[in-house]
């Protein structure tokens, strides 16, 4: 799906003032019909934000909207893909130790659910710069824009769900309630939204990926931007009491991530440890392209050995009379980049070795 946009205002720049924060996109959709979309933005301390937390300052607005506006960015060059790899590079600017830990944790949640890998780098061409913003704003650009792109976290943004939400923007997610088909699923209560905040409920034009997901971490909550916080600004048509949005990745968020960036392998123990034999197996990612990986094995929680595998192998046998902990690692400059879940098997104290394998 392709849109040709002609911009009446081509560039967003830092000179934009509060009275001039409206952009009109004129274009023709793939059916030849005219598409006119008003893009309203807000200037928050010099940051130009669309729909509350989507950063559009510092870049040509075309870079933001020339990607078919959808629930996720469609063209793969706006994704963090390099061949088969899905690596999003990042660096910190101004975050303290605890704040960085919160970001690492949010990244690990995304990594556990998908083939995305976050890697810290100062030298890559395309980098998400995670900055401590001076106010309470939380924001990100959408998709891989190219060059240094900013993801801002102010005081109050350091909760897991907010960081994951902003990271998903950077990975290419738009807001769920801005999907072009949202009016089939939700009601917007315009009378409870201040005039200057109504643009936060803009709809995108274009197609959507997957079914509408009320529980997406990218969905506004029922009273987002409400004048009267006791009343909703959004309700589901099918069930006005349905709680919208989530503090964690929904199953649809995960499948969308996996659709965009591949899946993470799941490590399982397939047989018991009677006699000290363990069979472990895993599924390989459909996409991912990890060429160097190994198993890290702990016996009685002491690091014991790691094993080299060739890409494509999917099982390992371990002999041990003690407890065993295993995880698969992607080799990152000699360190373990998390590649799978960790399987823990307690020490088997049973003398009975005739019961056969167990799960
Ligand atoms: Zn957002």
UniProtKB/TrEMBL annotation:
PROSITE patterns: ASTACIN (PS51864). InterPro entries: Astacin-like_dom (IPR034035), MetalloPept_cat_dom_sf (IPR024079), Peptidase_M12A (IPR001506), Peptidase_Metallo (IPR006026). SUPFAM superfamilies: Metalloproteases ('zincins'), catalytic domain. SMART domains: ZnMc (SM00235). The active site is at 166. Residues 70-266 form the Peptidase M12A domain. It comes from the Bacteria. Gene3D superfamilies: Collagenase (Catalytic Domain) (3.40.390.10). Residues 1-18 form the signal peptide. Its cofactor is Zn(2+). Keywords: Hydrolase, Metal-binding, Metalloprotease, Protease, Signal, Zinc. Zn(2+) binds at residues 165, 169, 175. Binds 1 zinc ion per subunit. This is Peptidase M12A domain-containing protein. The lineage of its organism: Bacteria, Pseudomonadati, Pseudomonadota, Gammaproteobacteria, Alteromonadales.
């Amino acid at each position: 799906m392709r849109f040709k946009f002609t911009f009446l205002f081509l560039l967003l720049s830092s000179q934009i003032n509060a009275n001039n924060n409206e952009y009109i996109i004129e274009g023709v959709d793939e059916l030849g019909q005219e598409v006119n979309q008003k893009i309203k933005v807000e200037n928050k301390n010099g940051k130009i934000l669309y729909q509350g937390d989507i950063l559009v300052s510092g870049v040509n607005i075309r870079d933001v909207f020339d990607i078919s506006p959808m629930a996720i960015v469609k063209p793969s060059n706006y994704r963090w893909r390099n061949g088969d790899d899905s690596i999003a590079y990042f660096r910190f600017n101004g975050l303290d130790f605890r704040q960085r830990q919160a970001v690492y944790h949010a990244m690990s949640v995304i990594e556990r659910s998908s083939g995305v890998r976050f890697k810290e780098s100062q030298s890559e061409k395309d980098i998400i710069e995670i900055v401590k913003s001076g106010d309470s704003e939380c924001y990100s650009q959408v998709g891989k824009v190219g060059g240094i792109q900013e993801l801002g976290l102010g005081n109050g943004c350091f909760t897991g769900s907010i960081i994951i939400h902003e990271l998903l923007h950077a990975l290419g997610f738009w807001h769920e309630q801005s999907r072009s088909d949202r009016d089939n699923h939700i009601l917007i209560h315009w009378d409870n939204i201040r005039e200057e905040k109504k643009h936060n409920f803009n709809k995108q034009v274009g197609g959507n990926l997957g079914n509408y997901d009320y529980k997406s971490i990218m969905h506004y909550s029922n009273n987002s931007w409400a004048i009267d916080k006791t009343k909703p600004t959004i309700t589901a048509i099918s069930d006005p009491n349905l709680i919208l949005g989530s503090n964690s990745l929904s199953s649809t968020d995960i499948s969308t991530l996996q659709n965009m960036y591949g899946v993470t392998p799941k490590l399982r123990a397939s047989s018991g440890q009677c006699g000290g034999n363990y069979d472990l197996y895993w599924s390989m990612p459909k996409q991912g392209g990890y060429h160097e990986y190994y198993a890290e094995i702990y016996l009685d929680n002491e690091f014991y050995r790691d094993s080299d595998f060739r890409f494509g192998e999917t099982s390992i046998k371990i002999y041990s009379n003690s407890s065993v902990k295993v995880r698969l690692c992607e080799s990152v400059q000699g360190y373990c980049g998390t590649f799978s879940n960790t399987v823990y098997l307690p020490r088997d104290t049973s003398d009975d070795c005739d019961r056969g394998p167990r799960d």
